[in-house]
Specification:
The protein is mainly alpha-helical and about 525 residues long. The protein has helices spanning about 45, 70-80, 90-120, 135-145, 145-185, 200-210, 220-250, 275-290, 295-300, 310-340, 360-395, 400, 420-440, 440-470, 475-510, and strands spanning about 1-5, 10-15, 15-20, 35, 125, 130, 405-410, 415.
């Protein structure tokens, strides 16, 4: 194991290479060359950077970004079509045929609009020639500043932490579903095949410890593409099985107003009027979570090459991705509800509905696990980068924090090992796995995450940054429209959060730590 260099990169200024031990506040800790920030350039120069900068470097002196429309689309689809798609049939079952698809469409429109606002804020000031913002927090700092920066960081990184927990729970449920479907098939439906989720969560955690050693966002593009393909695979299987179930039933199930009071659920409980209200509110959080990707939008945009301007590519990728995912959401959610009606399972593929053909279920659930392995990294890499950047600024001369070591790996090449990265990311995965084992409530966790992150990260900060960047006059019609949108979404988030927390309270009444079975 050979000592290499500190992970804090060298910097280039007017052709002379100089090494620094101190870390700049504005630069996150990424393992490539940086140069001094160049003077602000005109739009024509920004569109043709070769006139001023090396073919190897962007206008900020970092190695040239290589992201495209398709890599950005794969990142977005990996982030959006997550485990949330599997809870949409349940969510629509709570809302009914009228409100369910309507709410789904409204969330799609709001996310599309606010994502485009956020994409415009990747560069401070001018969206073509302004200074780049490498993270969501950087964008808030450049456009809003003050305490809002800390508030943004707190909400964003807590939400990323929560997503890691949600994905760990979802992956274990899918792993168990493979075992349960095979068990159910062998017993001819006589054995309920109950089992604990703990071992499967630990298995997923071990896998993520390995993949978490991928250095940064730029290096997970291949995993993101694989994950995006897997998301379409299991969504298509769920849709196909739903259509088959509807055909077998000879018609559509469900009602205009959703689950009826007095319905006996799979767990044997009767839906009361109060529980109907909680379920309806929780459904809003589940749908919000199904569209949650704004918290990593800036980080995705920072991988895109230019020209053309990054916000143009990002807008195209956003429109394409959200359109495709909304079509899938409508089909999966509506056909799932049509197949099962009021008894639509909380997780479409792993609920009580689909046991045959069991081999197809196995393929779908394997696809879910593979997808969640990639999605976990897409959401956690910004959190990893933030902690490592802060640590390098705090202890710039510590070999433990900044030094890299070359580790030769057969069939791979040389891996640059950083001890702090190895230990901190491993501890992070262990912590998320432990919390997942303690609170394995899939639908409730999904609802809480959706409610907690939807308004501040998807609506409030993009709207406020756009107003500040475009210098929109206060009390103008455009300003009022944006504020009405923000306040309306705040109400939705509060309602969804209340419903989801109520669901957790109800689940805790019959819960025993480390003894949860399915």
């Amino acid at each position: 194991m050979l000592p290499r260099s500190r992970t804090l990169p060298s910097r280039i200024h007017h052709g002379a290479v100089r090494y620094y031990n101190l870390v700049e506040e504005r630069h996150d800790v990424r393992h490539y060359l940086e140069v001094e920030v160049q003077p602000k350039v005109s739009e024509s120069e920004a569109i043709n950077p070769q006139s001023n900068y090396s073919k190897c470097f962007d206008d900020d002196g970092r190695l040239k970004r290589t992201g495209t429309f398709w890599t950005s689309t794969s990142h977005i689809i990996t982030a959006v079509i997550g485990s949330g798609v599997l809870s949409l049939a349940w969510a629509i079952a709570q809302l009914g045929w009228v409100a369910g698809p309507t709410v789904l469409a409204l969330f799609a429109i709001v996310n599309l609009y606010t994502s485009n606002l956020l994409a415009m804020c990747y560069r401070a000031g001018d969206p073509v020639t302004g200074q780049r913002n490498y993270t969501y927090m950087d964008a808030v700092k450049a456009n809003l500043g003050g305490r809002k920066v800390m508030l943004c960081g707190l909400v964003q990184y807590l939400n990323l932490f929560g997503v890691a927990i949600g994905y760990t729970i979802a992956s274990s449920v899918s792993m168990m579903a493979i075992k349960r479907s095979n068990c159910y098939h062998k017993s001819g439906g006589k054995d309920p095949c109950h089992m604990s989720s703990n071992g499967y969560m630990i298995t997923f955690g071990i896998i993520e410890v390995i993949f978490s050693q991928i250095k940064d966002f730029n290096e997970v593009w291949w995993l993101s593409i694989v994950a995006a393909i897997m998301s379409f695979t299991y969504s298509t299987v769920g849709l196909g099985l739903g259509i088959g179930k509807v055909a077998g039933n000879g018609g559509f199930k469900g009602s205009l107003l959703g689950i009826s009071i007095g319905t006996v659920t799979h767990s044997g409980t009767v839906v009361t009027s109060t529980e109907k209200m909680w379920r309806t509110m929780q459904a809003l959080g589940a749908i919000a979570f199904a569209y949650s990707y704004s918290l990593v939008l800036i980080e995705i945009q920072d991988t895109i090459r230019s020209p053309p301007a990054e916000h143009k590519t990002m807008k195209k990728a956003t429109v394409f991705s959200i359109t495709v995912t909304t079509v899938f959401y409508m089909l999966c959610g509506c056909f799932g509800y049509a197949a099962f009606g009021d008894l639509a399972p909380g997780n479409l593929l792993t609920g009580f509905g689909f046991y045959n053909p069991y081999w197809l279920l196995d393929i779908a659930n394997v696809a879910i696990v593979v997808h969640l392995v990639g999605a976990f990294q897409v959401f956690c890499q910004p959190l990893f980068a933030f902690v490592e950047k802060w640590s390098a600024q705090k202890w710039p001369k510590s070999d433990f924090v900044t030094a890299e070591y070359d580790i030769p790996i057969p069939f791979y090449g040389v891996y640059q090992l950083n001890l702090f990265r190895l230990i901190w990311r491993t501890l992070f995965v262990i912590l998320t796995t432990l919390i997942s084992i303690l609170l394995p409530f899939f639908n409730d966790v999904v609802g809480i995450l959706g409610a907690f992150g939807f308004w501040p990260l998807t609506v409030y900060f993009p709207v406020e940054m756009y107003i500040a960047q475009q210098k929109i006059e206060k009390w103008s019609s455009r300003w009022l429209g944006l504020q009405i949108l923000s306040m309306s979404c705040l109400v939705v988030s509060i309602v969804a959060a209340v419903g989801s927390f109520a669901g957790v309270v109800l689940d805790l009444k019959s819960y025993k730590p480390f003894k949860t079975t399915y």
